[in-house]
Amino acid sequence: MTELAFTRPSLDRARLLRLLQEYGVYAGVLVLLLFDVAFTPHFLSVENFRTQAVQVAPVLVVALGMALAIGTEGVDLSVGSVMALSTSLVSLYLGYGPWIAVLIAVAGGIVVGVANGALIAFVGVQPIVATLALMVAGRGVALVLLPQLKDVRDPGMAALGSGAVLGVPYLVLIAAGLALLTAFVVRRTTFGRQVLAIGDSRPAARLAGLPVGRVLVVVYVCCGALAAVAGVLATARLSASDPTSLGTLMELSAITAVVVGGTPLSGGRVRVGGTVAGAVLIQLLTTTLIKHDLPPSWTQIAQAAVIVLAVYAARERGRR
């Protein structure tokens, strides 16, 4: 009887932690939605939902790449700087046409991704160190290319930033499409299975004959390319290139979305649906605090608290 009394609470606690990790992000989104519906003025309007969706799109795109990196037990701290580099390249090459400028911007993100992946996969540098170096270097290069804010006046970029199909903004459609593509890659392709195997145990993946180095490089190339796309989307939405501030603390938002969405920092798993919900949660949290006249610093504090809670839940579950 005594043993049962001690075992039952322990099992209940384990089950609660499992539910928190699996479904906590969706519950958080639901709670914030209910709170905003009840207490936030003008929340239930088409224009508000459109604004929220457009603002979350770049965060989600970056978070998708971050999810792949974290799935390999890595991380990419350079994503914010890649966004800054992307906006600088768009501004510099816009004279050749918007598509050329976008392709060059994405190519810049790919170059950063190759550098990150090569340092991690072939030189043996820890992901946090390698991407930290590129974070500093990337922002520096962006500021050398474009030292100050510059307006982006181009019909193509304006259409990307404000256009819509059946009322759904292009930015939202692009982010949703990339989310579906990432989910397909993770769940249905050999590459996706290799990513999860490497995150689960890199030595075992090598012994199994998997191309660990090549897969890691591709993962960080995807992360850099997605961050560059996010920079293009943000530039189109703002109609301006500002490498001094664009992407600042984006790595924090992306990591928060991924971890809160249930992807463990220990790797071996990627939850794309959870990442989408995590990005929405961060956007709703930010909006809620701002609309209730709390300073922006509270958003960062709230994000930090959410990360700690998610990591704690994952850690406790891992022990069992």
From TrEMBL:
InterPro entries: ABC_transp_permease. It is a multi-pass membrane protein. The chain crosses the membrane at residues 23-44, 56-79, 99-121, 128-146, 166-186, 207-234, 296-314. GO terms for cellular component: plasma membrane. One of its GO terms (molecular function) is transmembrane transporter activity. Keywords: Cell membrane, Membrane, Transmembrane, Transmembrane helix. Pfam families: BPD_transp_2. It is found in: Cell membrane. This is ABC transporter permease.
